[in-house]
Design a protein that fits this description.
Radius of gyration: 22 Å
Strand content: under 5%
Helix content: over 70%
Number of helices: 5
Shape: elongated
Number of domains: 1
Distance between the termini: 64 Å
Largest sheet: none
Length: 125
C-alpha cells in the first residue's frame, strides 16, 4: 500500500509538472519548460515502476512533459531562424561597448578587430 501512495504522488507530481511545462512554454520563458518537462518525464517513469495502476496519470505526465519540451524547442528554433542574425549583431555591439567601458580600450584595439566585425564576417559566409 505504501508503494502505491508513493507512486500516486509521483504520478500526480509528474502530471502537474507536465502541465506547468506547457504553460511556461507559452509564457515564453526559456529554462522553466526544460526543467518542468524533464522532471515530469522522470517522475512519470518512476511512478509507473512503483505502481502499475497509475498508468493514466503517468502517461499524462510523460505526454505533457514532452509537449512542453518540444514546443519550447520549436519556439526557440523559430525565433533564432527569424531573428538570429539581429540578435548576434546586437550582442556583438553590446560586447564591444562593455569591453570599452570596462577596460578603457576598444575591442578592436584589444583583439585586432571588433566583435561586431567578426560577426559580420561570420554572417556574410
Amino acid at each position: 500500500m505504501n508503494e502505491f501512495k508513493t507512486g500516486q504522488k509521483l504520478a500526480l507530481a509528474a502530471m502537474l509538472l507536465g502541465i506547468l511545462a506547457i504553460v511556461t512554454t507559452f509564457t515564453f520563458t526559456l529554462y522553466l519548460p526544460f526543467i518542468f518537462g524533464s522532471l515530469a518525464i522522470l517522475l512519470a517513469i518512476l511512478s509507473r515502476e512503483a505502481a502499475a495502476s497509475l498508468r493514466v496519470q503517468a502517461i499524462a505526465g510523460i505526454v505533457s512533459g514532452a509537449i512542453g519540451l518540444c514546443s519550447n524547442i520549436l519556439i526557440i528554433a523559430i525565433t533564432f531562424s527569424l531573428f538570429g542574425s539581429e540578435i548576434m549583431r546586437e550582442s556583438a555591439r553590446i560586447y564591444d561597448e562593455m569591453v570599452e567601458e570596462i577596460y578603457g580600450i576598444s575591442s578592436e584595439e584589444m583583439l585586432g578587430e571588433s566583435m561586431e566585425e567578426k560577426i559580420e564576417k561570420l554572417l556574410d559566409k
